[in-house]
Model the fold of this input.
Amino acid sequence: MEIISDIKEMQKRSYGLREKGHRIGFVPTMGFLHRGHSSLMEKAREENDALVVSIFVNPTQFGPGEDYEAYPRDVEKDQALCQKVGTDLLFSPSPSGMYPSGFGTAVSVSGITEGLCGASRPGHFDGVCTVVAKLLNIVCPHRAYFGLKDYQQFQVVRRMARDLDIDTEIVGLPTVREPDGLAMSSRNAYLTPGERKAALTLFQALQWARKMVEGGILEAGTIEERVREMILSTNGASIDYVSVVDAEELSPVKIIRDRALLALAVRLGKARLIDNIILEAGNRQSNG
Done:
């Protein structure tokens, strides 16, 4: 595995791989890697000739008062995991390299960024789209892999790539969970033992919503209200949002007629946790 920090060198290596006819699979990350990340890397390794992973804690997607400085980092562990899964190139640029003096460009996607995390984190998806657009231009991958725990992010990046004619297939893979159901996240490191136990209410609430739909309850408002009640009964939990939305456009729905996304964001102590599930009318359920 080769570690590259220089942007021009990364582009040069990517161009060389493409000239040789090698297909590049790319996994962009913010580090502090876990099993969810490695599942993306393994799929990218399986489906492509070369695997490129990036580690970059992107400052532009953190708002005022958010956890950019405190965001967990473990460089040695991350490099060891990348090596283990067979990463060819690990791209680890600096903030000053990605955003040099005078940088003044932002990439913005409208519509699907306005609800869910976009409503409570103004500017967040502009930061996501800007850095992902830069990374796709630098790495020039054939495929880029994202986890569906961040379902809105996946849809936003896919829309951006489509709208800007970026020649990269955006691939979404299912949420990877702990044995007890908690979605894997770097921010789980913020949880105290008590909060870690309480965090299970997110997965339990999603499963309860699935059972409601299977039982014929298709009114989004009813599902949202009952999920909120369940989460708020958990000690220390506060809700950012609980929303049933269209699975593609992420717009609110009143009745689940086909496929809908139940997405939630919950705060426990220092951690803001997100999770989701796809709900389908007619007993055809699947995880988000």
